[in-house]
Structure formats: structure tokens, C-alpha cells
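User: Can you predict the 3D structure for this chain?
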Amino acid sequence: MTAPVILKTDDRNVERAIAWVRAIESGQTGDALVDFLTPDVIHEEMPNRFFPNGGKSDLAAMRAASKRGQTAMRSQCYDIKSATGNGDMVAIELDWSAELAIPLGELPPGAVLKARVALFMEFRDGRICRQRDYCCYEPIGG
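Assistant: Here is the predicted structure, written as C-alpha cells:
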């Protein structure tokens, strides 16, 4: 894992966004994650290989997804490449990888998924109120 390039270090929202990514990476769920989010948070997943139509989630759906992630993945890693912020907006570029704990389609447990990801977050009062994910998944086994 390389050290991230922090393009703007005086921004507390950048620090908070990186802490959010690390909390997800470490497998935190429930209240540990909710502390990062506003009650009316919206998470958008842009169309990609696994979600061809994209998706939109509220707080309850994000909580449920974090618990499903613990079951589906043995481990995951977020290698942050860069992070920058301007006021209430933060952008993070990262490489993600995860080892499956359960089968996914034709993929067996132990298969590794990889993606290059851009996250765009909007903050309100130090919490994420909107997040958009752009995930570019690599070929399986790539």
C-alpha cells in the first residue's frame, strides 16, 4: 500500500473521508459507520460490471450493505492514491481489492476482485450527506 497523495491537508473533511474509507476497509458496520453519515445520506453507485444500472441507497440500505459485505468478503483493501477537498466536497482516488468469502456468480470463494475507484463526497456539518462511486472493475484474475 502506498501513502496517499493528500492534495489539501488543511481540510478536515478530507481527513474525515479518509477515516470513512479506513472504517469500511476494516469491516466496521452499524453505528461505527453511521457516525460518518447524515440521517438523509444518499449513496449512488454509477453503472459498472456488477451493477449495470447503477444504484441508489439511503442510510438503511447502506447499513445493510455493510453487513452483507462482512459476509461476502474475507478481506478488502483500499489503496488510496490521492485525496483532495474544497469546502464541503472531497474526491478520493483509490485501488480496491477484495477476497471473496462466498461464491459470486461463477466466482469461487477465494477469488479476488479488483477495481479502480473514484469517490466524490459531499459533507454537511462534518458528515457525509452524499457519495457517488465510480468503480472500474478489472477483469477477474487480472
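The chain has one domain: 5-137. Strands lie at 5-6, 37-45, 55-57, 73-86, 89-100, 112-124, 127-137.
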